[in-house]
């Protein structure tokens, strides 16, 4: 039985074979240019990844700080809300029981 994994493997192998054929048909100058282009693209990708990693660390640190501050703000409001809710319920419940 042929499943999508087998088809993907076949297509990947065919693409690699074609790339090897094209590479072998290039002149030495074209091979050097291709290598230089690939090296430059890899270095750019590496630089972007390093910048992203640095930004991610800063971002998570900022989230941690802002998140804690936000929780402090909302917890005070939530505590007030629940206190008001349960106090009203208690006072309403005692009045209904004595009537």
Please describe the structure with a list of short key phrases separated by commas or semicolons.
93% helix, 99 residues, mainly alpha, 2 helices
Question: What is the β-strand count?
Answer: 0
Could you state the oligomeric state of the chains shown? single chain
Helix content: over 70%
Unreliable runs, pLDDT <50, ≥5 residues?
A: none
What proportion strand?
under 5%
**Gap between N and C termini, in Å?**
78 Å
Instruction: Look at the structure and give the mean pLDDT.
Output: 82
State the shape.
elongated
How does the major sheet shape up? none
Structural class: mainly alpha
Keywords: Coiled coil
Protein name: YtxH domain-containing protein
Coiled coil: 28-55
How does this structure look, described?
With 99 residues, the protein is mainly α. It has helices at residues 4-24, 28-98. It has a domain at 36-99. It starts with a helix and ends with a helix. The model has no long low-confidence stretch (mean pLDDT 82).
